[in-house]
Amino acid sequence: MCEPSVPYPAPDTSSATGPAAPLRRAPFADLDARTLYELIRLRIDVFVVEQACPYPELDGRDVEPATEHLWVPGPGGPASYLRLLRDDDGAVRIGRVCTRRDARHLGLASSLVRDVLARNGGLRIVLAAQSYLVPFYYRHGFHRTGEDFLEDGIPHVPMAREPDAPWR
To answer: Is domain 24-121 annotated with CATH 3.90.228.20?
Structure first.
């Protein structure tokens, strides 16, 4: 459960091998109603409201048994979030990465991505990055795997990180 009394972590000054921010992980079945509400609200606030992109946020993948929800708690609810999926081909898929506007530039999303990489480094990890975030993912060892495409009117780039790829 999110703990509103937890302050934001200090800016991330850790190495690329581990997270600095305290984080929480849970499958859907372990999320209480309030935490689920706060996570979905954060996603809607960022993707639907802030980016002015109406799209079907509830896509059915949140409830899959292999889906994992990761977030950094902060005052007033989750400060940063990431959804981890398992694709049919065995790849791990990072998605729905978002950070509350008032918690950006503190390294929170990097902490979440580094946690995923530390626990899944032996697997292929894929994602569809919003185009302006390609340098962010490049720093975490991801590379472009295809042509740019539009998803819900927003430019995206398919990216992957191969098993045990080096950090950049």
So the answer is: no
What would the two tokens of residue 68 be? Answer: 């994992």
How many residues does this entry show for the chain? 168
d(CA 2, CA 75) in angstroms, rounded, equals 9
What pTM does this model have? 0.83
> What is residue 4's three-state secondary structure?
coil
Q: Decide if 57 contacts 48 (C-beta within 8 A).
A: yes
Query: Which pairs with CB-CB distance under 8 Å and at least 24 residues apart come from 152-157?
Result: 152/53, 152/55, 153/53, 154/51, 154/53, 154/130, 155/130, 155/131, 156/128, 156/129, 156/130, 156/131, 157/128, 157/129, 157/131
58-86 confidence digits (pLDDT tens): 888 888 999 999 999 998 899 999 999 99
Listed by start position, the domains of the chain span 24-121
Q: Mean of the per-residue pLDDT values for the chain?
A: 84
Query: Which pair of tokens denotes residue 46?
Result: 């960022």
End-to-end Cα distance, the chain: 33
Identify the helix (H) or strand (E) that includes residue 44. Answer: none
- What digits encode the pLDDT tens for the residues 90-139? 899 999 999 999 999 999 999 999 999 999 989 999 999 999 999 999 99
